Amino acid sequence: MVRMTIPVTADAARALDALAAIDRQLGDATSQLTDVAARAVGIARQTDWRTGSARRFHAQADDWSRDVAALVGTLDQARTELQTVRHGLQLNAWGWGL
């Protein structure tokens, strides 16, 4: 099997490596935020709702969960844009730049 590599300059190679690292970090952040939001909602569901503080906690947990969901969407959009940049660098390296 012949394996082809992208003919890139040292600067382009560093940029591609950095973009790949950032993409992994954004993916990790998305997973961690999703897990934490799910735990917060679970704790809120298990709380005894008879006290005022419990009701406030539940409301804040719901608000926070919505905020996290919006942030996850932003992270997903950033990953999509990052992948577009990475693909553009790869295309330029092959001489097929747009």
Helix-strand sequence: HH
What's the multimeric state?
Answer: single chain
Tally of DSSP β-strands: 0
Mean pLDDT across all residues, rounded? 83
The assigned structural class equals: mainly alpha
- Low-confidence segments: none
Output the radius of gyration.
21 Å
Number of helices in the DSSP assignment? 2
| Amount of beta strand | under 5%
Description of the structure:
With 98 residues, the protein is an all-alpha fold. It has a domain at 11-42 and 58-93. The protein has two helices and no strands. The chain has helices spanning 10-46, 52-93. Helix 1 packs antiparallel against helix 2 (52-93). The longest helix has 42 residues, at 52-93. The protein is rod-shaped.
Task: Write the SSE topology.
Layout: H1 10-46, H2 52-93
Helix pairs in contact: 1-2
Give a brief outline of the structure:
This protein has 98 residues and is mainly α.
List the keywords.
98 residues; mainly alpha; 2 helices; 81% helix
